Amino acid sequence: MLEINNIYKTFNAGTVNEKRALNGVNLKLNDGDFCTVIGGNGAGKSTVLNSIAGVWPVDSGEILIDGKDISGLPEHKRAPYLGRVFQDPMTGTVADMEIIENLAIAARRGKRRGLSWGVKKSEKDKYREMLKEFDLGLEDRMTTKVGLLSGGQRQAITLLMATIQKPKLLLLDEHTAALDPKTAAKVLELSDKIIEENHLTALMVTHNMKDAITHGNRLIMMCDGKVILNIEGEEKKKLTVEHLLQKFEEVSGSKIENDRMLLSE
């Protein structure tokens, strides 16, 4: 479903601030894979997601989704293939619009617009059932402005908006990092449920090693702009934080010194 072939990305090339963010990244995800991505600050995790989404073009290499080369497409033309949830709960929704209006906008993304009345009753019933599964009481607050919701509730809405059209690839960019532990666990539980029920292919960036091990069927670790570890199947099921740290040291020849990752064990 996703194929990344030898992509490179350098920022501020030819200046004193030159930074090679991606250094020959290769990755293949099969249909239905849920892959977690871990690495220190500056490892290239979010840069990979932004490159897939078309936020900025890669310098070389190619990115294919479901066999189609999207490397040259602008960001808005990649949108039909992708769903994305960002770290900031405020990013994926329109604060001064109602929950039901946000969901209706997401459901109509990429479709032709007409002049018929807004949200039909059948749609309202459908959205109510979807929200009910979240067990957050949102099904009874569909006319509430999204800006009045908590961060976790808003992130749950964003997750539903990102997946309402069943994208070919779901990108989760540290989407629980700004939430308290209890709310983060709930949003991760919802993510697992939506991905499994809709058989989505997903790529989840996280700084939390336990979350990276617990969720998904694959795990990759990045360092210095490239993938240095790719763990899946039975090996991932048996993986512990200690073994992951050991594997990193074996492959990279150095210890993890990133406070953020070590504090998230």
Provide an overview of this structure.
This protein has 265 residues and is α/β, with parallel strands linked by helices. The protein has one domain (2-95, 167-262): P-loop containing nucleotide triphosphate hydrolases (Rossmann fold, 3-Layer(aba) Sandwich), CATH 3.40.50.300. The chain has ten helices and ten strands. The chain has helices at 45-53, 75-78, 99-107, 121-132, 151-163, 181-197, 209-214, 233-237, 241-252, 259-262, and strands at residues 2-11, 19-29, 34-39, 60-65, 68-69, 82-85, 169-173, 202-205, 218-223, 226-232. Strands 6-7-8-3-9-10 form a six-stranded mixed β-sheet, with helices on both faces. Strand 1 and strand 2 (19-29) form a beta hairpin.
Topology diagram in text:
Layout: E1 2-11, E2 19-29, E3 34-39, H1 45-53, E4 60-65, E5 68-69, H2 75-78, E6 82-85, H3 99-107, H4 121-132, H5 151-163, E7 169-173, H6 181-197, E8 202-205, H7 209-214, E9 218-223, E10 226-232, H8 233-237, H9 241-252, H10 259-262
Parallel strand pairs: 3-8, 3-9, 6-7, 7-8
Antiparallel strand pairs: 1-2, 1-4, 4-5, 9-10
How many helices in DSSP terms?
10
Give the domain tally: 1
Element-by-element helix/strand order: EEEHEEHEHHHEHEHEEHHH
What can be said about the biggest beta sheet?
6 strands, mixed
CATH architecture: 3-Layer(aba) Sandwich
Give the low-confidence spans. none
CATH homology superfamily name? P-loop containing nucleotide triphosphate hydrolases
Overall body shape: globular
Strand order of the largest sheet: 6-7-8-3-9-10
The count of β-strands is 10
Mean model confidence by pLDDT: 89
CATH level 3 topology: Rossmann fold
- CATH uppermost class: Alpha Beta
Helix content: 25-40%
Classify the secondary structure makeup into a structural class.
alpha/beta
Estimated radius of gyration: 19 Å
Distance between the termini: 30 Å
- Which band does the percent of strand residues land in? 15-25%
